[in-house]
User: Fold this.
Amino acid sequence: MSARVTVLLFATARQAAGTGRLRWPVPPAGLSARSLVRSLGERFPKLEPVMRTSRFVLNGSYLTGLARRVRPGDEFAVHPPYGGG
Assistant:
């Protein structure tokens, strides 16, 4: 069984990918959040522009950059800007 992270997609990110939850394969040592975002954008081209303005959450903590490692078993969430009232 390959190592995976759970990717949660909200609002317009969910619409762009066609799903709100993915089980994404990662190497056993993990990869940078930047690499994960790049891979998601390659797999889901409509998601790539949404992620340019999104915030990312790793295991419940907002990331201030994309250098942190995402490891098997982690939860990575994509939060695009929300609107409404």
User: Anything to note?
Assistant: The longest helix spans residues 33-43.
